[in-house]
Amino acid sequence: MKSSLDESPAEEAADPNAPAPLADLRPRPGPPGTALGCPRDLLGQRFVYTVISPRARGLSVGVNMNPDQRCNFDCVYCEVDRTVPARESGLNVAVMGRELEQTLALVRAGGLRQRPCYRQAPRELLELRHVALSGDGEPTLSPHFVDAVEAVVHLRARGRFPYFKLVLITNASGLDRPEIAGGLSLFTPRDEVWAKLEAGTQDYMERVNRPDCSLEKIQANILALARTRPVVIQSLFTTINGEGPSGAEIEAYVQRLRALKEEGARLPLVQIYSATRPASHAQCGHLPLRTLAAIAQRVRDSAGLHAEVF
After folding, report:
1. % pLDDT > 90, the chain
2. For the whole prediction, is pTM greater than 0.85?
3. Could you name the CATH architecture of 4-309?
4. CA 85, CA 99: separation in Å to the nearest integer?
5. What is the predicted pLDDT for the residue at 276?
6. What is the Cα–Cα distance from 160 to 286, expressed in whole angstroms?
7. Alpha-carbon distance 123 to 33, whole Å?
């Protein structure tokens, strides 16, 4: 699994701005049978699940916005096997709302400890970090996006549970649609949008993400939103048939991040990570940690952005 970035030193200079306690607690992918090695747990439900997420730094409660598996990307690293028929034809917002309330009550009562994957998990990993709008496709393609946001925000406003952060995990292709902007207008400043940016060139994007839109559109959508509220960049790098992204590709990616910052985008964090769950495409593999560390360092050095490896 070679990449031209493998020649970079494995160790990184310490970031003086990095929060040490969070870094110490950051979960790493673990072996099967542990909380970090378990897939998401639907808890016998249809739309709401739990998972220990390294990027969330603990427990994420997810809403599957696309149980019909609808997506306009076909990423080589995606774990969704679309050769298997979807279990649902779409999101039922009323059912989702009830499931979310039940799941939050279970989390608050410590009931996850009874689930096999979570029995040995450290206490801090079972503390709720956020509720994520994510799932088996692109959340902004759901025709129920606004209704789902309203339902989650209403549940939060009722005050039955401690305040929780809402996170939209998106490929950014739909951020320019008016109805999506309407849904995001319900987000508070404490809520977050995590937007995918994983390529520096259209050719590489076509190879890895296989989208129905251009890289320029993705960058423009991120810029427009990040001028109005902070946007976290999520960047998954993988190997394809044993080969990672070239040094030239990473430089082009870093320059796109730099351009976003220079044009007024507020990007508080760039998440650098690799495929950890089994992918439906056999040619996809995990990029070595030292390569991920080198990419993160280039983001810091060249784009002047805070980057972390997960």
Report:
1. 81
2. yes
3. Alpha-Beta Barrel (3.20)
4. 23
5. 74
6. 41
7. 17
Query: Among residues 41, 91, 92, 77, which one has the least CA distance to residue 62?
Result: 41
The CA distance from 187 to 293, in Å, is: 32
Q: Which residues of 38-70 are buried (b: 16+ CB within 10 A; e: fewer)?
A: bebbbbebebbbbbbbbbbbbbbbbbbbbbbbb
Amino acid 175 reads L
Helix (H, G, I), strand (E, B) or coil at 195: strand
pLDDT along the chain (310 residues), means of 10: 46 36 35 58 96 95 98 95 92 98 98 94 95 97 98 98 97 98 98 98 97 98 98 97 96 98 98 80 88 98 98
The Cα 62–Cα 188 span in angstroms is 18
Domain boundaries, the chain: 4-309
Return the pLDDT at 34: 44
CB under 8 A, 24+ apart: contacts of 204-208: 204/245, 204/249, 204/252, 207/76, 207/240, 208/75, 208/76, 208/77, 208/238, 208/240
Smallest CA-to-CA distance from 200 within 250, 270, 153, 259 is with 250
Question: Could you tell me how far CA 151 lies from the centroid of its own chain?
Answer: 21
Which residues contact residue 137 at a Cβ distance below 8 angstroms, ignoring those fewer than 6 apart? 65, 66, 68, 69, 70, 71, 80
Strand ranges, E, within the chain = 48-53, 58-64, 128-134, 166-170, 192-196, 232-236, 238-240, 270-273, 284-286, 307-309
